């Protein structure tokens, strides 16, 4: 039997009330959001998963794809740290890859803005969600995007290659393709080899069509030449990234493994130490860290504004369902929306409709 909108709304209100009782301030956000803001953040990719329309006064707008961006905007305009917010309402996501999933559903969120002690803030938010969802028998999984970004920054490569890898951290297939190309695992395509071997490729280009100007094409060719001249990325460094991405253990064993990797990739150590402090803070919150799962790759396909700690709660008996709750740290997002003024933040959302599909507490 399906879940009605009235039932989903009532469950959302119940969950929000629990967050209010825990000290969060309830906030409301407009359903129509500026398309310009979201496009600046995510690029044109967001059009594939958002509903876009034209407003005669405001121009291009999107039906609210989530609450995080408008909550951050509100906080950067009026808030002071520490601040705790909660909200509930409908969000709208196109589901072309998963037509069986709802494109309109409720979210309930909890966000914490705090300028210091990030490990303690991460632990507080995670514990809040763990306590709220404890009756449902869900499996918690954690990760840390910051560890992977630290590893990429530590690689001995050009700034151009590093920037490309950083840009595609949230696109695992593209990230892997770049690593394979930079390390020489993937042969240079014949068309690119011919282009690089031409004495004057611009003279042989013919008439220009499409959106790119002649200058842009010339700059792209120069970039390809510079990349080819750099030579292959050391295979041992690629192996370190592969080993890092394969870490999938309980937190204590994952921490031990990451410390081992940091011996050969010292730039990783500050991020690993941050993970260690978070484990200690979680234990102080009553979380059984010894049994908590950590996956180094977690969050790379669906959490692209998170740049540090990430977490999710999954239903083991319903693998057909998406995560019941997700969350994480998004410091970089606050800096971008705050025009250079950061307000470190961590938060997450619960989907009440999915909780109702589970049939109640376990």
From TrEMBL:
The keyword Transferase applies. Keywords: Glycosyltransferase, Transferase. The keyword GTP-binding does not apply. This is ATP phosphoribosyltransferase regulatory subunit. GO terms for molecular function: glycosyltransferase activity; histidine-tRNA ligase activity. L-histidine binds at residues 66-68, 93, 107, 111, 300, 305-306. One of its GO terms (cellular component) is cytoplasm. One of its GO terms (biological process) is histidyl-tRNA aminoacylation. Pfam families: tRNA-synt_His. Residues 13-171, 222-348 form the Class II Histidinyl-tRNA synthetase (HisRS)-like catalytic core domain. InterPro entries: aa-tRNA-synth_II/BPL/LPL, HisRS-like_core, HisRS/HisZ.
């Amino acid at each position: 039997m399906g879940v009605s909108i009235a039932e989903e709304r009532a469950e959302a209100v119940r969950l929000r009330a629990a967050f209010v009782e825990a000290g969060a301030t309830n906030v409301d956000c407009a359903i129509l959001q500026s398309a310009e803001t979201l496009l600046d953040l995510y690029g044109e990719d967001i059009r594939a998963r958002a509903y876009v329309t034209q407003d005669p006064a405001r121009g291009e707008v999107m039906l609210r794809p989530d609450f995080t961006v408008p909550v951050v905007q509100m906080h950067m305009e009026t808030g002071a740290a520490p601040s705790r917010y909660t909200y509930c309402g409908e969000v709208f996501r196109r589901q072309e890859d998963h037509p069986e999933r709802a494109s309109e559903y409720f979210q309930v969120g909890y966000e914490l803005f705090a300028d210091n002690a990030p490990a303690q803030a991460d632990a507080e938010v995670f514990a809040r969600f763990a306590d709220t969802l404890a009756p449902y028998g869900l499996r918690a999984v954690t990760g840390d995007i910051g560890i992977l970004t630290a590893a990429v920054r530590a690689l001995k490569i050009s700034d151009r290659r590093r920037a490309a890898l950083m840009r595609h951290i949230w696109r695992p297939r593209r990230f892997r393709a770049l690593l394979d190309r930079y390390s020489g695992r993937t042969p240079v395509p014949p068309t690119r080899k011919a282009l690089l071997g031409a004495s004057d490729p611009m003279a042989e280009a013919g008439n220009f069509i499409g959106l790119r100007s002649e200058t842009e094409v010339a700059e792209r060719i120069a970039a390809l030449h510079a990349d080819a001249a750099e030579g292959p990325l050391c295979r041992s460094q690629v192996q370190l990234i592969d080993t890092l991405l394969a870490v999938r253990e309980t937190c204590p064993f994952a921490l031990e493994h990451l410390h081992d990797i940091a011996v050969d990739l010292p730039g990783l150590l500050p991020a690993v130490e941050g993970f260690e402090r978070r484990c200690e803070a979680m234990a102080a919150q009553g979380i059984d860290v010894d049994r908590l799962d950590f996956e180094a790759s977690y969050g790379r396909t669906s959490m692209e504004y998170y740049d540090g700690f990430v977490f999710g709660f999954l239903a083991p008996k319903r693998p057909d369902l998406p995560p019941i709750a997700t969350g994480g740290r998004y410091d970089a997002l606050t800096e971008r929306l705050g025009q250079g003024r950061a307000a470190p933040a961590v938060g997450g959302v619960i989907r009440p409709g999915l909780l109702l599909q589970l049939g109640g507490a376990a």
